[in-house]
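The record is passed on directly below:
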Amino acid sequence: MEPVVTTAFTPWLSLLGGVLIGISAVMVMGMFGKIAGITGITKGLVATLPFAGGPDDRAWRIAFLAGLILSPLLVVMATGSYPKATIPPSLIGMAVAGLLVGIGTSLGSGCTSGHGVCGIARLSRRSFAAVASFLATAVITTTVLRHFF
């Protein structure tokens, strides 16, 4: 039997993270009139490539994604180490998970951040349904993986 991995309860850090996510979502909506969903931001960035002929709003999209990429470096600078991963690394498992998330994002017309943070805040019925689906799938997947594999 595999040992149970526990994650430390960090209410203040979690609250701070939630506040920062909320502030960034409000800023993106207020400044650019866009939803702060990572999939939409990335998809929009690809659409703004010169050959795609989309709107020229690359700068904020690049800045938003750069912040996501550079944030762990700030954690390392502040603490001296990366946060400890609590999931077993599996390249194949992560590739399959990424593919499934991509398919689900396309089918659901948005990602967890777009629906969960922005859609629910706007009282979107579609986002409530999407988040309920995300959570149910997460519970089922975790239960199956932890108890049957």
About this structure: The chain is about 70% helix and 0% strand. Helices lie at 11-32, 38-47, 58-79, 91-107, 112-121, 125-148. The chain has two domains: 7-86, 87-149.
